[in-house]
Design brief:
alpha+beta
Length: 258
């Protein structure tokens, strides 16, 4: 299934993701209705029948937003996958009861900034793969900025400037960003996915969710992304660091689209 953008499906999304993890099949969904499946009063959190809140993972932070069950919008302060469910921590004296219908709404500005940042980091990954044929070894992000580590032998300001120029060229190319769900056997046989160490992902995860910046980068990924590279805006490389032999770090920030 092509996501976001809902283009012609390439493969069906697994039923669980399509029905319960709305962020996996529609990154642009800002609000949703659901029912409370489980309540943890000790921690002030609830699990929902379905959610558009991304629970965090792969370096991308969890979403923020609100839940409303009739008494006004209540802030969602944390979201995390735990024990097979996605839990939502609430800034409220008492969480809603099991079975309560709720209306969820994301902090969209924050989510969209994270989508742009996440796609920018995948562009960086693709540029480094194209230039040096090395895989990313680690990374992290906050809204509007992030970093990736690579097993490069050397790093310099000049290399950072060169990478910044190449990233912005790929942004200007307006490459389509597509999500597909790929059966594990096919994923393991795809040489394009080796840059993401897909072989390290537990075998029970089948199918894999794959992000494809068409013509540049393709990797297993559970996070949210924009529709095309043009939506990222522009990128500034803000730092290049050596973290030891064969471990170099590139930091970047995203700027809004014109």
């Amino acid at each position: 299934m092509a996501v976001p953008g809902n283009k012609t499906p390439a493969a069906p999304a697994p039923g669980s993701a399509a029905e319960t993890e709305l962020f996996a099949t529609d990154a642009y969904r800002r609000s949703f209705d659901s029912a409370v499946l489980e309540v943890d009063r000790d921690q002030g959190r609830v699990a929902l029948a379905r959610t558009a809140f991304y629970p965090g993972g792969g370096g991308q932070p969890h979403d923020l937003g609100t839940l409303d069950w009739g008494a006004g919008a209540t802030p969602v302060t944390r979201v995390k996958r735990d024990g097979g469910r996605i839990w939502h921590w609430l800034d409220a004296p008492e969480p809603p009861d099991r079975g309560t219908e709720v209306f969820g709404e994301l902090d969209w500005d924050r989510r969209h900034t994270l989508m742009r940042t996440h796609t920018a980091l995948h562009i960086l990954c693709g540029v480094i793969w194209t230039e040096f044929h090395v895989a990313v070894t680690g990374g992290n992000m906050d809204p509007g900025k992030g970093r990736l580590d690579f097993p490069l032998e050397s790093m310099s300001t000049e290399l950072g400037q060169r990478v910044e120029r190449r990233i912005n060229e790929e942004i200007a190319a307006a490459r389509e960003v597509v999500v597909t769900f790929l059966g594990r056997e096919a994923a393991d046989a795809d040489p394009a996915l080796i840059r993401t160490s897909a072989n390290l992902i537990p075998k029970e995860i089948d199918p894999l969710r794959v992000i494809d910046i068409v013509g540049l980068d393709k990797q297993a990924d559970g996070g949210t992304h924009v529709l095309t590279t043009a939506e990222v805006g522009s990128v500034v490389v803000t730092g290049t660091e050596s973290k030891g032999k064969g471990n170099k770090r590139i930091r970047l920030e995203v700027r809004p689209p014109a």
